[in-house]
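Priority: medium. Attachment 1 of 2:
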């Protein structure tokens, strides 16, 4: 295995770093602005990325991407995550677009894809419900055909970005009388459609990322059904595969460890050996995760598909590593870490610790990931 960048890849990496250093809008790294200010900056970052066809980098050129290889995508994701560039977590790009490319009609590809790739439309994902998370196929939100429309009634929850998304990628039950995986369909729905109510849910870190969303007699044109009626579960499953195989966005962890090491080197003449040992463990974790990401990308280059088992392992390992690094960071800062003031170096780590709880829940919990890896990855029998 050789993970060295070839000259073309090294040149692309240099181009990405140059973009980050010279072409981002003013204030892109100010994490303490108001929500409206940060959203405006995020949108501007997306517009600038889109101008280079980097927003939807791996998409085919006809849909506004560059047809980038998995390795190029990894290089891009690594730099964006390491430098904490906003606007690069994009559900439209990561899974809605790829599923539309696979199962959508030509007119749907025309309508949705270019507006995702050029940064015009942001999408949210409307899957989870109060009674359907890990057991997602138990969803109860109904879509009932009525002439040229479907009428949607029900509730979704934990909808990230639902408060500013332009479109929603909705999974709803179209047939309640068949086994649960068989009666689900997927729709593209405009988030300003009458009958949709978005209510904020504030997470334990104090930020507004997700929402609960209510549908009351919401009419969505039947033309917005993506794929075949009642076969939406396959779209959802393929979309989740795209979500879990996203590679390279793990270098945020490397950045955290680098910052902690730099802080200790310059600020602390004497360091508790226990802290040093923990940091060594985190540095090993970061190196391992990076190697996993490069392995996944290299396999994807060879075979055209991301290796499922390794992608799931990387998702699981990365989520838990982020939690460990955030906990180690508070140890590094000692009492200052426990009593963080907004704006101080350690307050970012306090936020990271609280936010990292969600890492092992979003996109499928660690328990579910372990169960899937045990059976499908390691071939162990089901309970
Ligand atoms: C930050 C964040 C963002 C999110 N964004 C979105 C979004 O944009 N759109 C969306 O649709 N959803 C979103 N989600 C929801 C997420 O997909 C679900 O929270 C997740 O799938 C778990 O479902 P649940 O919360 O209903 O927990 P449950 O499924 O009720 O699970 C509760 C606990 O039981 C465990 N458990 C459940 N079943 C089993 C089992 N069979 N074996 C062992 N343990 C089990 C779980 O691991 C968990 O610890 C988001 C969640 C978070 C935290």
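Attachment 2 of 2:
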């Amino acid at each position: 295995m050789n993970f060295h960048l070839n000259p073309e890849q090294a040149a692309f990496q240099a181009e990405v770093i140059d973009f980050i250093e010279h072409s981002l809008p003013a204030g892109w790294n100010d994490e303490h602005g108001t929500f409206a200010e940060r959203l405006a900056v995020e949108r501007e970052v997306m517009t600038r990325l889109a101008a280079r066809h980097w927003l939807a980098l791996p998409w085919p050129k006809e849909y506004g991407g560059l047809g980038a290889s998995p390795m190029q995508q990894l290089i891009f994701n690594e730099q964006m995550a390491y430098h904490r560039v906003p606007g690069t977590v994009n559900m439209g790009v990561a899974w809605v677009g790829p599923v539309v490319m696979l199962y959508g009609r030509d007119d749907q590809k025309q309508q949705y894809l270019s507006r995702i790739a050029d940064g015009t439309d942001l999408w949210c994902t409307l899957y989870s419900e109060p009674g359907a998370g890990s057991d997602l196929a138990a969803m109860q939100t109904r879509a009932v055909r009525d002439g040229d429309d479907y009428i949607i009634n029900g509730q979704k929850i934990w909808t990230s970005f639902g408060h500013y998304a332009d479109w929603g990628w909705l999974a709803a039950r179209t047939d309640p009388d068949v086994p649960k995986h068989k009666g689900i369909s997927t729709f593209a729905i405009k988030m300003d459609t009458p009958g949709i109510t978005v209510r904020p849910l504030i997470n334990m870190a104090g930020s507004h990322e997700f929402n609960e969303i209510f549908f009351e007699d919401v009419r969505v044109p039947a033309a917005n059904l993506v794929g075949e009626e009642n076969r939406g579960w396959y779209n959802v499953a393929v979309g989740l595969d795209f979500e879990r195989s996203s590679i390279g966005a793990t270098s945020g962890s490397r950045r955290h460890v680098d910052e902690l090491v730099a802080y200790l080197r310059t600020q602390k003449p004497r360091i508790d050996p226990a802290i040093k040992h923990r940091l060594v463990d985190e540095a090993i974790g970061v190196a391992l995760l990076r190697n996993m990401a490069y392995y996944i990308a290299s396999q994807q280059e060879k075979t055209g598909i991301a290796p499922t088992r390794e992608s799931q392992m990387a998702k699981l390992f990365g989520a838990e590593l982020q939690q460990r690094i955030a906990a180690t960071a508070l140890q590094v800062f000692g009492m200052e870490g426990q009593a963080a003031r907004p704006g101080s170096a350690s307050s970012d780590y306090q936020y990271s610790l609280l936010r990292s709880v969600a890492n092992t829940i979003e996109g499928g919990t660690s328990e579910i990931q372990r169960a899937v890896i045990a059976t499908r990855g390691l071939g162990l029998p089901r309970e």
